[in-house]
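Board notes, transcribed. Complex of a protein with magnesium ion.
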Amino acid sequence: MSNKRAAHGAAELAVRLRSRELSVAPAVIDLLEEGGDPARELLAALSPRALGGEPEGHIIGITGAPGVGKSSLLGVLVEHWRSGGHSVAVLAVDPSSKRTGGALLGDRIRIAGRAAGGPARFIRSMAAAERVGGLAPATRAAAQVLAVAFDVVVIETVGVGQSETEVAELADTVAVVIQPGAGDSLQFLKSGLMEVPDVLVVTKADVGEPAVATLRDAQAALRLAGSDERPALLVSALAPPAGIDALASALDEHRAGIDLAARRLRNRRAGALADFIAEYGNHGLSAVGGRSAAERLLVAEEEDLDTMALVDLLARHARLDKR
Ligand SMILES: Nc1nc2c(ncn2[C@@H]2O[C@H](COP(=O)(O)OP(=O)(O)O)[C@@H](O)[C@H]2O)c(=O)[nH]1
Ligand SMILES: [Mg+2]
């Protein structure tokens, strides 16, 4: 694809996303995964500055250890949103970075089995970043632009390494999922990640008492961390699903209670810094004058630029050669 044709594609895709044409989602992801100028153009055309405000879609992060039940829960949640007439895009981040990798393909089918059909349900797996648990620049970009057209955009990440923090720096609302059983919630407390969840979810409530006990542990951990105003909920994805309405409401209430513009702005800056480091490495970071210098530059930028434009701004400041 010539650069010119791709760039034309970006302008057209931006218009179509703005008119909420959901069927363009696959083409949008392809373009973002290719990166370069077309991706830049698409992001710029859909930046808050270009739109005159924040995209309205609710960007939700769902994270948790492998096997806790995230994909199963998402299958049920997607159904819930769809029956309320909401469009939903799910970006499932593949920790193995291999698109055909067994685990994620299984996930994809598990979600799709419940939630296939129609452009208002869009499900796509995306490669993870090179570093363990990181989000790839394309995933960050995809969540931001899909929120222009979709009512709900979910990023499912496996809770390892950086991923909880990075998903919190992308989403409006983060749900951390744990499953019944010893250790989970305690480990959570130990790892110092109690700041991350806006909503804490204990799945597999159908197992009975162990789930209730884990919920109590989780609530105790939240209290210890001074975060007991954050909701902790019990759900089950097994038919008949339980607790899904309450979870959907808790997610909505969280979003209704935040300063969305402030959180999105903070997230774009954090995302730009992560993308910059992913692209230019520590060498790039030193060339800007270190992390705090980079953060100061981002905060000083008054135009409400998109993430890729912020990365370019840092690169220009560091006089790093593009490509
Ligand atoms: N009993 C029960 N099992 C569940 C529930 N949700 C998921 N599972 C099972 O837990 C396993 C992992 O589920 P999955 O959704 O793939 O977890 P993920 O790795 O976090 O996405 C699967 O065997 C599911 O069938 C639930 O609500 N109740
Ligand atoms: Mg999964």
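The radius of gyration is 19 Å. The domain at 58-257 is CATH 3.40.50.300 (Rossmann fold).
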